[in-house]
Specification:
alpha+beta; Phenylalanyl-tRNA Synthetase, Chain B, domain 3; four-stranded antiparallel β-sheet; 6 helices; 33% helix
Length: 237
């Protein structure tokens, strides 16, 4: 039944020109307040310049409560949030330490700023490099994770039971939103982009939806000709 559902999701995504990730029943059961937005962007043309305003982004009122919810989620699947925190907490610590977020490229700079502004994890990847549909679930520990250590390419394996995003080839993001792999990373040549915006309570649902709209608006300012689709990931879909 799961294979049939994955196949149906794949054909629907092709028809709608959008990526429709699969979230396992185990995730919905263990983290019932989890919701996410899947944002697919096609025909992106690498821009010159930035769409960011001067000054550092200001986090929302629920920021600390949301960070604490992610710490609890990480502990639940066996990760130590003091050593490997959610992506938004890592960004927040860097902003507090340095007074500014690092500048990487226009797309990453955009979603990093939005991550702080909305107090929630954002991830961006090259959709063309995916093999099959993205899937969120618990790792067996046998999956491969393509990363780098001391400047050298290495293959790691997630811990058994760790929450990961993966495709048919391997893990694309470890510990939910902690670290992305090298294989599907965005580059200056990426034209088919996929983003996921993660949410736990107490982040309001309307702010999650607004985060997706703001992401698409920012990407459209960078590349006016894009095609974009936003899907809400929730139980039963």
């Amino acid at each position: 039944m799961t294979d049939l559902f994955n196949m149906i999701s794949y054909f629907l995504s092709v028809m709608n020109n959008a990526i429709l990730p699969v979230v396992s029943d185990e995730i919905w059961s263990d983290y019932p307040d989890y919701r996410a937005l899947s944002v697919t962007v096609r025909a992106f043309r690498p821009p010159h310049g930035s769409v960011l305003e001067n000054g550092s982004p200001v986090p929302p009122a629920w920021m600390e409560g949301h960070l604490d919810a992610w710490r609890t989620a990480f502990r639940k699947f066996g990760a130590n949030p003091k050593k490997t925190s959610s992506s938004v907490e890592a960004l927040w610590r860097r902003l507090q330490k340095n007074g500014a977020l690092p500048s990487i490229d226009p797309v990453v700079d955009l979603y990093n700023a939005l991550s702080i502004r909305f107090g929630t994890p954002f991830g961006g990847e090259d959709a063309a490099r995916y093999v099959g549909m993205p899937r969120l679930g618990s790792a067996t520990g046998a999956e491969e994770f393509d990363t780098a250590r001391d400047g050298l390419a290495v293959v790691e394996h997630p811990d058994r039971g760790e929450v990961v995003w993966r495709d048919d080839q391997g893990v694309t993001c470890r510990r939910w939103n902690w670290r992305q792999c090298r294989r599907t990373a965005l580059t200056a040549a990426s034209e088919d982009l996929w983003f996921v915006i993660d949410r736990l309570a107490p982040m309001p649902m309307d702010e999650l939806m607004r985060a997706g709209d703001e992401l698409v608006a920012g990407l459209r300012r960078l590349s006016p000709g894009i095609e974009a689709a936003i899907s809400l990931l929730e139980p039963g879909k």
